[in-house]
Amino acid sequence: MTDSRTCPRACESHSDDERSLIKRSERPDRPEEACGVFGIYAPGEDVARLTYFGLHALQHRGQESAGIAVGDGETVTVTKNLGLVSRVFRESDLDSLTGNVAIGHTRYSTTGMSTSWENAQPHLSAIGHQVIALAHNGNLVNTHELREDLKGNGIRFRSTTDSEVIATLIGHYTQAHNHIREGIRETMRLIKGAYSVVLITENALYAFRDPYGIRPLVLGKTAGGHWVVASETCGLDIVGAEHVREIEPGEMVKISADGLEVELAVPAEKPSLCVFEFVYFARPDSVLNDCTVYEARRQMGAALARSAPAEADLVIGVPDSGVPGAVGFAEESGIPFGEGLIKNRYIGRTFISPTQSIRQQGIKLKLNPLRHVIEGRRLVVVDDSIVRGNTSRKLVQLLRDAGATEVHMRITSPPVRWPCFFGIDTDSQEQLIGSAMSVEQIADHIGVDSLAYLSLEDLVGATGCAPDEFCLACFDGAYPIDVPDGIRKGKLSLESCEEAG
Ligand code: SF4
């Protein structure tokens, strides 16, 4: 077993100072993605390079760390590090990762220290003499109790992630039953929360998804007949794989020399795909539950134009996820669409943050306005969400400074009133502006001429999916899975805790 811990670059590429810059307080004012996972079983192909491309397509789901694990028939090797996919892997890393089966991961931490190498995935562990690697998207709600049980049995942990807990449980029950699929089944019975997991041994790929299907996971096939799994269909497209279907809630698939084997490992519960995948997380060219994300976002904008029209000269979207909504708003309202904001796409999580004094000079790290488009115009500005409100406020000021005469903000989701416990990094409830203020107060706070949100009904309608297929808890507080008191109290206000029982 080798891994990139032994590579000097892994130790040298991030100074402690740089690591300390990646603080929760500096995270942007919107719900942040969880993670992206990818897996491929393709003997005779360059599985590490294919995984590398798959991770590029899933980079939007996590920019803090990236990793690839490869099984070569004898063992499993991992290379991982902090930073963007393009920064973590060199040509020589990929050349040395040879094998038949691979998984990869892009990480945005919602549990554990974001800056720890140990917390980067895939997570490598041993079951007796067998090495496995595991990568996880989602968040468990009973990690603490499971960790305490395992620690009570003398098991030590290297990282602070729930992914390590999953790997440890699988190892424990695989040894008890001498059968890895039974190890995964037993683990799926015990863990609670959101999980879309890929795992490899030296010669097989496994993928499994929680019984509610909160985070996406899709299955595809290449023209050469090789199976691929990915968080989103854009991860299949990039390696030329055709989307076959979703990995169903509660399902486990095994892909090996014996082909594809599918089983329902735990009974499926009420389907609860995170609706925020449609609003913001997923790439617009991905397809979720047979619905195209771009089209859903366009329909969200069109619905807003009907429910909350505005007198304006131009519709602009806040890149990237607000743009399809702006297109839909423009088409429905007849107001011209224009590009008014340019996004700097190359800022990862581990970039060097500006100092406070540089910040005060008004640098525009992420968005720059196109003054000649905006000046003298009454704008409809379409964005996907408002979480704390501080970014929206700065954005409105940016547009006014660039000469906008009116700013009418339209949001393609309802107010976020409840925190997420399933792998999305939203604040505690009192920090959510939608929970603390009325729509009028928010409009005042961010300094717009008018503000309107999409209704929950119109949001679900825009996806084209069945209304009962989603987790909508950010908006209505109806969590699909019981969240233990200890976790709930950390994020919910006292009143809401009582309300939620
Ligand atoms: S609580 Fe919100 S962000 Fe979390 S899974 Fe449900 S809809 Fe998605």
Structure description:
The protein has 501 residues and is α+β, with helices and mostly antiparallel strands. It folds into two domains: 4-8 and 31-269, Glutamine Phosphoribosylpyrophosphate, subunit 1, domain 1; 287-499, Rossmann fold (3-Layer(aba) Sandwich). The protein is built from 21 helices and 23 strands. A seven-stranded antiparallel sheet has the order 3-2-4-1-10-9-11. Helix 7 (162-177) packs across helix 8 (180-190) and helix 11 (293-307) crosses helix 12. The longest helix has 16 residues, at 162-177. It starts with 7 loop residues before the first helix and ends with a helix. Bound molecules: iron/sulfur cluster.
Number of strands: 23
- Could you estimate the helical fraction of the residues in percent? 25-40%
Indicate the mean pLDDT: 87
**How does the overall form come out from the CA principal axes?**
globular
Beta percentage is 15-25%
Cα Rg = 23 Å
Q: If classified by CATH, what would the architecture of the largest domain be?
A: 4-Layer Sandwich
How many domains make up the coordinates? 2
List its traits.
501 residues; Rossmann fold; disordered N terminus; disordered C terminus; binds iron/sulfur cluster
Quick synopsis:
The chain has 501 residues and is an alpha+beta fold. Helices cover 33% and strands 24% of the residues.
SSE order and pairing:
Elements: H1 8-12, H2 16-20, E1 35-41, H3 47-57, E2 65-71, E3 76-82, H4 85-88, H5 91-96, E4 101-107, E5 123-127, E6 130-140, H6 143-152, H7 162-177, H8 180-190, E7 193-200, E8 205-209, E9 218-222, E10 227-230, H9 233-237, E11 241-246, E12 251-256, E13 259-264, E14 273-274, H10 276-281, E15 287-288, E16 291-292, H11 293-307, E17 314-317, H12 322-333, E18 341-343, H13 356-360, E19 367-369, H14 371-374, E20 378-383, H15 390-401, E21 406-411, H16 433-436, H17 439-446, E22 450-453, H18 456-463, E23 470-471, H19 473-476, H20 485-491, H21 494-499
Parallel strand pairs: 14-23, 17-20, 20-21, 21-22
Antiparallel strand pairs: 1-4, 1-10, 2-3, 2-4, 5-6, 6-7, 7-8, 8-12, 9-10, 9-11, 12-13, 15-16, 18-19
Helix pairs in contact: 6-7, 7-8, 11-12, 11-18
